[in-house]
Recover the amino acids of this structure.
């Protein structure tokens, strides 16, 4: 089934062709016809499946009929993070460029006056984080009674961030006649309840239920010792061995972000930080430079795990094991997007065993032990590693430049890094 058969208008089809998309992705094939029919939809789809276009494309089609009124947006997309909201806005611009639609982005870190000016002119599409939307509403700058299409994106993340009460408040401000689309990578009970409460006879769509992380992502666990130095040394070693085109390194703690960035810079990499304490302009500027390949390694908090859409990101490295399985899925989902291959590494010491176990059960996919070509490996690794990975894992042709070999980070080789002199590498 091609895009032509989904019922989208010619202007939208033109934008799709210009974006270079040849085939709709499974979520697009399933969701677009229902959205165009005005149905409510609950879609369980992971990031990287093309889910954003599955709601933006039909919305543009629907909204191209009709006109915006001052302070009464016609559609609302709620996003958990500023980054994701910004990404959605960019997608709307790309897909909607032949349909004169107006748009406002209401996110924190940007002046109210600028956002207010847009609202006063009237917008077809309002993309917002819940807090900033409610701020504008409470200031009397916004009426939500004109919303025809309401989208809740990454609902599970909204739950993690404590936004469900805000979403319920917002949903109650809409009129009865609107259509609601809810997207979530996972469906925890509170998200399901939210859907039951606010959606009318929704169509349920589930994409890749048995495999929650993209199958074109090769996932590895890098076993490190408890030695405090081991983590940073292992990171430098992976970067040296993998020589990634570009990489995001996720840290659980902010102080690690600063330390790791410093260490990478000292090692000669073009590395920068990205985290929630930076103001929105700084975050956007850093993000833009990363997308533009001016930054090679982005050291980030989970703020970057949602919404960052970098073309052909080759590597994700979890400096720490993520706090929960959803964060793992979202972090590694920054790579292996749009059919490209990607590689994801998670550094884990014996102290991380429990957290890692939860993730392994949740992703229902093979996470291999990063296997060295030289150096000692622990007996436990030999047992766990599948036969087919006795040789070093292959580097994906599409995204890696060259692989300089793989070394071991086994628990029984704690002195490996201490005794290895790492070459400096330009970023
Ligand atoms: P998403 O899951 O919305 O974050 O999208 C992941 C990536 O897939 C984005 O970079 C989109 O530009 C891209 N994409 C979306 N739909 C298609 C398609 N039909 N064909 C190729 N790439 C697509």
């Amino acid at each position: 089934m091609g895009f032509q058969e989904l019922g989208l208008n010619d202007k939208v089809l033109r934008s799709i062709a210009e974006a270079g998309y040849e085939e709709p992705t499974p979520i697009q094939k399933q969701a677009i016809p229902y959205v165009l029919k005005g149905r409510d939809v609950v879609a369980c789809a992971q990031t990287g499946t093309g889910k954003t276009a599955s709601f933006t494309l039909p919305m543009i089609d629907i909204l191209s009929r009709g006109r915006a009124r001052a302070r009464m947006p016609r559609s609302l997309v709620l996003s958990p993070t500023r980054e994701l909201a910004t990404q959605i806005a960019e997608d709307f611009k790309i897909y909607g460029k032949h349909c004169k639609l107006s748009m406002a982005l209401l996110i924190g870190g940007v002046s109210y006056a600028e956002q207010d000016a847009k609202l006063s002119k009237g917008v077809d599409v309002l993309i917002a984080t819940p807090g900033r939307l409610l701020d504008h509403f409470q200031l009397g700058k916004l009426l939500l009674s004109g919303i025809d299409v309401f989208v809740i994106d990454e609902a599970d993340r909204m739950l993690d961030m404590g936004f469900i009460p805000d979403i319920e408040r917002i949903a109650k401000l809409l009129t009865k006649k609107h259509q609601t689309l809810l997207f979530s990578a996972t469906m925890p009970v509170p998200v399901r309840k939210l859907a039951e409460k606010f959606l009318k006879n929704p169509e349920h769509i589930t994409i890749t239920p048995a495999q929650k992380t993209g199958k074109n992502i090769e996932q590895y666990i890098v076993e490190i010792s408890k030695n405090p130095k081991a983590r940073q040394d292992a990171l430098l070693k992976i970067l040296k061995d993998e020589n990634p085109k570009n990489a995001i390194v996720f840290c659980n703690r902010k102080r690690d972000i600063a330390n790791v960035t410093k260490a990478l810079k000292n090692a000669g990499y073009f590395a920068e930080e990205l985290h929630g304490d930076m103001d929105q302009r700084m975050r956007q500027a850093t993000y833009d430079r990363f997308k533009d390949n001016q930054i090679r390694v982005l050291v980030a908090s989970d703020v970057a795990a949602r919404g960052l859409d970098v073309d052909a990101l080759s590597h994700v490295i979890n400096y720490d094991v993520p706090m929960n399985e959803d964060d793992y899925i979202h972090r590694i989902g920054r790579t292996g997007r749009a059919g490209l291959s990607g590689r994801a590494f998670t550094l884990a010491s014996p102290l991380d065993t429990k957290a890692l176990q939860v993730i392994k059960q949740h992703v229902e996919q093979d996470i291999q032990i990063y296997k060295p070509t030289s150096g000692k490996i622990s007996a436990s690794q030999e047992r766990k590693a599948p036969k087919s990975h006795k040789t070093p894992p292959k580097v994906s042709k599409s995204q890696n430049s060259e692989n300089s070999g793989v070394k071991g980070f086994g628990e029984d080789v704690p002195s490996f890094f201490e005794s290895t002199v790492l070459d400096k590498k330009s970023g």
